[in-house]
Amino acid sequence: MHLASGQALEPLLAPRDERGRRFAAEVCDFVKEQGAGIPSGRRSVGCSDVIESIFGKSKSSLERSPTPSLGANVVRFPRFVTGITAEWVGQALETVKHRTTQEVVRMLGGRSESQLQQELRPPKL
Question: How far, in whole angstroms, is CA 48 from its chain's centroid?
Fold first, then answer.
């Protein structure tokens, strides 16, 4: 959802009768009202179904991941809701310092799976 979602929705609805037109108008008004609180240029999740879908896709992705913990993998969430373009990647590489990404991953992920495995091994005698 974004600031102009209500306006973008209007032409997609093609009610066939007066009752349908009233319903479509109410839906568009509701979407416009919800979108009014979103800053220009930003997007927001519009319903819990979207969130549930993202977590479902995340779960499926984690099952195939070499490190199947949610922690550091949470940074993958944007790829479930939008296309990632070369321009976005280029902008991110120019904007975000490597040290910052390492700190975020460390904060989100805590200890890695290999670190946890090493801690569980018995000491060498």
Answer: 12
Are the beta carbons of 1 and 31 closer than 8 angstroms?
Answer: yes
User: Percent of the chain at pLDDT above 70?
Assistant: 84
Radius of gyration from C-alpha coordinates of the chain: 22
CA–CA distances in Å: residue 12 to residues 27, 95, 102: 12, 37, 43
Q: What is the DSSP letter of 75?
A: G
| Amino acid 72: pLDDT | 62
Residue 45 to residue 81: CA distance in whole angstroms? 10
pTM of the predicted model as reported, rounded to 2 decimal places: 0.38
Alpha helices in 64-120 (DSSP H): 70-73, 78-81, 86-95, 98-109, 113-120
